[in-house]
From TrEMBL:
Region of interest (Disordered), residue spans: 37-64, 283-410, 857-877
Compositionally biased region (Acidic residues): 356-369
UniProt cross-references to InterPro entries, sorted A to Z: DUF6049 (IPR046112)
Originating organism: Ornithinimicrobium pratense
Transmembrane regions listed in the UniProt entry: 833-850
Keywords for this protein: Membrane, Transmembrane, Transmembrane helix
Pfam families: DUF6049
Listed name of the protein: Uncharacterized protein
Pro residues bias (residue ranges): 291-303, 383-401
Length: 877
């Protein structure tokens, strides 16, 4: 931030209250009824104003110049006591802004309703701020991108005419460039910057019938894909942002100190689950090449005085010699202070006698370095001369070590701190959402796409690898309460949620949070009952959250950024005061339930907590007490009316849940993806990595994705890619087969490209025609990591020709692996022709044998004188 050039501020003049305005103002404040009817103006609309003032609304008279009110001290003012307003002037424009005066003024009549507060802050109230409360002379020149602080103290005399009953003033801060001589109570003409805010006051110790307030604060995870990142750096950074000391969860717990706050917690925030790098990772026994431990080399031993590795000084200390940074630099002796008789001790310069610090009596510096005694004004002499260029050297003194910076909080420390803070909460003020906050509105509206088993599993699962301390913590508090993300829940929706809880929660559903419009059918109706039993579900009590107030809490983060934390806190307190002023004698309960993901700055929460303690018109009660009292109330039916946008304006976008990214088709895809994971777990020998991704898939049903659909799509694509790549890594090797038999065995080859072994892989074969018949399906096959295996099966030839064998590889439950393959088979059955061939071959052998026999007989006839064979008998002729 660019620093500002601030001139000397003028002496602040006491704020002037015109004498002619004093009596009318007192009459207006006293006669204004606190029970006035609310103005019939909507929150989000801005009708045309009849005021001629250019300062209506929180606008910038000079482009880019804004007033931010950071703090009001005390948060709730008291009549006759001073109030201090602190803030900043921020110049976001391209030009330098000169501001000399900031004025705090108030409207003459008090605000008496919620609509009055909204109209004043948003600039639709035509009244002007003519009652000057205080001012501050700035004298600031703010460059582009710079800022300057201001502080205006409203004296107690300016607030002495306020009534003792709770009241609120419309306040306007105006920054102008007027000179001191031109200062008037309210500057005329356009102002460089204007901020409209409110100021709440109360003067009595208590009220007869305060407004009961109940806080229900959700503590859930943000829609961040890196919460499930396998990368350690991304995973740690995302979780520290979600549950660390600067997270929204910790801000709520540490800074909202209003009594009786009920915390509605997602158990998944207590365990930072991280999946493996992939669905399949190799185990240590399956590594192809185990790495050998690194060789350890010993340092060479010194063999002589020249081989020393360390230098030893005279004191016996050893160390590695370090050359000086500047060889020509000489160190002077330290300057020591010597006592003198005329004043403070003067430093003694080395090389001179003690006390003789004058060089030659001349003062070449015109007295700039001389020091005068504060008591008698005597001169103690010129300042010491600089040390000489040369002289004896000495070791420099030890430099003071800077304070070590605090170590950043680790993820384990952040989780431990969060668990500790929740363990210290009263169990009656601790409510639990199902793990990962599954979208109940989706589960009950997409019953055709979401099987009952999937919905039941989402509501019964615990955080993955939850430590015993977390399991013990989850046994405290309530779990039979539901917060569906439905803008206008109907009786059938609540009945479906009740049936779901009856199957998964002990005791079923006992309470459900709904918008208050479900009771009143009107966003402008004042609150009355905080909870009522439902006529269609007698065992269920509905808690009605006030959409207007809850929306203001959710918007206080952006409001604080634009107008300051003090302005945001005052707006909320004034809204509650306006609610009480609309019916101060009627007992009512205001339920405040900020939507999931609402981020409120710590400064706003601190001032809200202080204001709640000082606001006599507010009385905190717990949600459990509201539920207990609702059992005696008359049952009502749900109206089915959502918060009205024409009444709430931009706040409706905060309190009305966005559409779920899980449409019907995506819900079916999630179910199929879960089935694929179950199937892969049946064939993988090591399923630890795969099981680590199942919580990531379960989290895809979470309500938090309504806040950011794009992040849901990113996580979904990652999951789908991991599952698809694992399935496709087990496939059939393409081949062609010539089958030349009536019946025989055919071999196929299954390939496993995964780094782990697979088991019980099934092959299902189906010929495309009747030329080949598969007489026996293959047995399940096991394939090692990065290997292939031959799979035999029995087949029979029916007729000659070609056929296509359709092969499908699956897990035992039918989950497909790889892609369906086709094997071309050329069938050549043996048939009758084989016998003709064999007969022909036999006849040929017979003919060849006869021919050989005849040839042998002819040879014996051609040689009659040959001797007969031994043992033969000679026959007579």
């Amino acid at each position: 931030m660019t620093p500002t050039t601030r001139r000397r501020a003028w002496a602040a003049r006491p704020p002037r209250l015109p004498v002619l305005l004093t009596a009318p103002l007192l009459a207006v404040l006293v006669t204004s009824g606190v029970g006035a009817e609310p103005v019939g103006a909507s929150v989000g609309t801005s009708p045309d104003s009849d005021s001629d003032s250019d300062r209506d609304g929180n606008g910038d008279g000079d482009a880019g110049l804004r007033i931010l009110l950071d703090e009001v001290d005390p948060v709730v003012a008291r009549p006759g006591q001073p109030v201090t307003l602190r803030g900043r002037l921020v110049n976001e424009g391209p030009d330098v802004s000169r501001l000399n005066l900031i004025t705090v003024a108030a409207a003459m009549g008090p605000l008496t309703s919620r609509a009055d507060v909204a109209g004043w802050v948003e600039g639709t109230d035509p009244r002007s701020a003519s009652w000057v409360l205080g001012d501050d002379a700035l004298g600031a020149v703010i460059p582009p991108g710079g800022q300057d602080e201001f502080e205006v103290t409203v004296p107690g005399s300016s607030l002495q005419f306020l009534p003792a009953t709770p009241a609120m003033l419309g306040v306007e801060l105006v920054a102008s460039a007027e000179e001191e001589t031109d200062r008037v109570p309210v500057p005329d003409g356009p102002a460089p910057a204007v901020l409209r805010t409110v100021l709440t006051t109360t003067g009595q110790p208590s009220v007869d019938v305060p407004l009961e307030t109940t806080w229900l604060v959700p503590l859930t995870l943000p829609p961040d894909a890196e919460l499930s990142s396998p990368d350690d750096t991304e995973h740690t950074a995302a979780w520290l942002a979600a549950v660390g000391q600067d997270s929204s969860v910790r801000q709520w717990l540490e800074h909202l100190t209003v009594p009786e706050v009920t915390w509605w917690v997602d158990p998944a925030a207590l365990v930072a689950h991280q999946p493996a790098e992939a669905l399949v990772v190799p185990g240590p026994e399956e590594d192809a090449e185990p790495t050998a431990p690194p060789a350890v080399s010993e340092p060479p031993e010194p063999t002589g005085p020249d081989d020393k590795t360390d230098e030893t000084d005279e004191s016996g200390q050893t160390g590695t010699p370090t050359p000086p940074e500047d060889m020509d630099r000489e160190t002077a002796e330290p300057v020591t202070a010597q006592p003198t008789g005329t004043g403070p001790s003067a430093p003694s310069v080395p090389g001179r006698p003690d006390g003789d610090n004058d060089s030659d009596g001349d003062d070449d510096n015109d007295g700039e370095d001389s020091t005068a005694s504060p008591e008698d004004g005597t001169d103690t002499g010129p300042a010491p001369a600089p040390p000489p260029e040369t002289g004896p050297t000495s070791e420099p003194g030890p430099n003071p070590e800077p304070d070590p910076e605090p170590e950043p909080e680790t993820l384990e420390e952040a989780l431990a701190q969060l668990r500790l803070m929740l363990a210290e909460v009263d169990p009656q003020l601790l409510w639990w959402l199902p793990t990962d906050d599954p979208d109940l509105g989706l589960l009950v509206t997409e019953t055709d796409a979401v099987p009952t088993a999937v919905a039941d599993d989402l509501l019964t699962r615990l955080p993955e690898q939850a430590p015993p301390a977390v399991v013990q913590l989850l046994r405290q508090g309530r779990q039979n309460v539901a917060w569906p993300a439905l803008a206008a829940p109907t009786a059938s929706d609540v009945a479906a949620i009740s049936d779901l809880y009856a199957r998964t929660r002990e005791g079923g559903l006992r309470a459900v949070l709904v918008p208050r419009e479900s009771f009143t059918a009107d966003s402008t109706a004042p609150p009355r009952l905080g909870a009522v039993p439902l006529g269609d579900s007698p065992d269920v009590v509905a808690i009605g959250a006030d959409s207007w107030t809850s929306g203001l809490v959710a918007a206080s983060g952006s409001d604080a950024e634009e107008h300051g934390a003090g302005a945001a806190a005052q707006r909320l307190l004034a809204h509650t005061l306006g609610t009480w002023l609309e019916a101060p004698a009627s007992p009512r309960t205001l339920v405040i339930a900020p939507p999931r993901g609402a981020e409120v700055p710590a400064e706003v929460l601190d001032q809200l907590s202080e204001g709640w303690a000082r606001a006599q018109w507010l009385s905190p009660v717990s949600a459990q007490e509201v539920l207990d009292r609702a059992e005696d109330a008359d049952p009502v039916g749900l109206s089915g009316i959502a918060p009205e946008e024409e009444v709430l304006g931009p706040l409706s976008d905060l309190v009305v849940p966005s559409a779920s990214p899980v449409l019907t088709s995506r819900a079916r895809d999630l179910v199929r993806l879960q089935e694929d994971l179950d199937g892969l777990s049946q064939i993988l020998r090591d399923t630890d990595a795969l099981r680590s991704w199942e919580p990531v898939l379960d989290a895809q049903w979470s309500t938090r994705w309504r806040q950011d659909e794009d992040v849901w799509v990113s996580t979904w694509r990652t999951l789908r890619h991991e599952v698809a790549s694992t399935r496709d890594a087990v496939y059939l090797l393409p081949s062609s087969v010539n089958f030349l038999a009536d019946q025989g065995v055919i071999h196929l080859t299954v390939v496993n490209d995964l780094p782990v072994a697979v088991e019980n892989v099934q092959l299902r074969l189906r010929p495309s025609n009747g030329r080949l018949q598969v007489t026996g399906q293959p047995d399940p096959v096991d394939v090692g990591p990065g290997s292939r295996a031959s799979v035999p099966f029995q087949a029979r030839s029916i007729t000659r020709g070609e056929t296509v064998l359709h092969v499908r590889i699956t897990a035992p439950d039918g989950t497909p692996l790889g892609e369906d393959a086709e094997v071309n088979v050329r069938v050549q059955p043996t048939g009758v022709w084989i016998y003709w061939v064999l007969g022909g071959l036999a006849g040929l052998v017979l003919v060849l044998g006869l021919r050989r026999a005849l040839t042998s007989s002819s040879r014996r006839t051609a040689y009659p004188g040959s001797s007969p064979a031994p043992g033969s008998e000679e026959r007579p002729q």
